[in-house]
Amino acid sequence: MPELPEVEVCRLGISPHIKSQIVSKVIVRNKRLRWPIPDEISTVVGLPVESVDRRAKYLLLRFNKGTLLLHLGMSGAIRVIDENTPIVKHDHFDLVFEHGKVLRLNDPRRFGAVLWLENDVDEHNLLTKLGPEPLSDEFSKGYLFNKAKNRKVPIKTFIMNNHIVVGVGNIYANEALFEAGILPTVKACDIEEVRLNQLTDIIKKVLSAAIKQGGTTLKDFTQADGRPGYFEQSLQVYGRAGKLCVNCQTILLEVRQSNRSSVYCPQCQQG
After folding, report:
1. Which pLDDT tens digit goes with each residue over 68-99?
2. Residue 34 covered by a domain
3. In sequence order, which residues have a C-beta less than 8 Å from that of residue 146 and are 6 or more positions away?
4. What's the mean pLDDT in 149-155?
5. How far is CA 20 from the centre of its chain?
6. Is residue 269 assigned to a domain?
7. How many CA atoms are closer than 13 Å to the CA of 103, on its beta-carbon side?
8. 25 shares its domain with 69
């Protein structure tokens, strides 16, 4: 599944091609995504895209009459291509622009979403309970410590909770906890404030690096222009169970947490 850095890279990739461009046509080939694509989506015809924003893993194409919300789901991909580009399997949705470009959603598993929001986006039920963006000023020293009080869940589960902070998915949670020297299984409430402050800074660092390097390519993700992300080359623990720690040469171990893989170094990461 594309995580926050991949979605942000997608936003950065498509924005220069569609911002201020006028929609000439909407094509829905299969409306049965995670939620049915609403008929109101045609409202955007004749309107220019005012901005391309992101909230958590949701892309927000803002128009003067509302906002088009896009989500990539488990395996979705968005491209900006020429209007005459042939259709391939799983091309479910096109936003056609007057300048001859098309924003196209391909989604083999159909867990993605295309929704039209006329009211305040932040009040929509998909967004209203989300925590702060990890690269925002709101996510700063003291924040995790205050939220972690009396929270007996494992720290990895805690930082992956979108109600706490958005966008710290499995890959980047593994990487951040390794760099912070914190076991993924330790209870959030048992970690000292100074270590949680360090973890906050490291989460920002890891996500910023992933965005800069173009996102992480695993099975499905490529950038909006078709190029792969390169952060995978920098992964220190994720996907490396059984291999040697890059720091101390101890064999990396793996546990399952909430049906997700947690890889850690028993020497470098402590409670």
Report:
1. 999 999 888 898 999 999 999 999 999 999 99
2. yes
3. none
4. 95
5. 24
6. no
7. 25
8. yes
Same domain, 29 and 97: yes
The answer to the question of residue 66 being in a domain is yes
pTM: 0.88
In a domain, 130, yes or no: no
Q: What values do phi and psi take at 211, rounded to 5?
A: -65, -45
Give the neighbor-by-neighbor strand order of the sheet with 66-71. Answer: 51-55, 58-63, 66-71, 113-117
Average pLDDT score over residue span 174-182: 97
Q: Other C-beta atoms within 10 Å of 244: how many?
A: 12
Burial 27-65 (b: 16+ CB within 10 A, else e): ebeeeebbeebeeebebbeeeebeebebbbbbbbbbbee
- Measured between alpha carbons, how far is 180 from 138 in angstroms, rounded to an integer? 20
Question: Which of the residues are catalytic?
Answer: 2-3, 57, 260
Span 221-264, pLDDT tens digits: 455 665 655 456 578 999 999 999 999 999 999 999 989 999 99
The dihedral region occupied by 172, where left means phi > 0, alpha psi between -120 and 50, and beta the remainder, is alpha
Do 185 and 221 fall within a single domain?
yes
**Domain range spanning residue 147?**
143-264
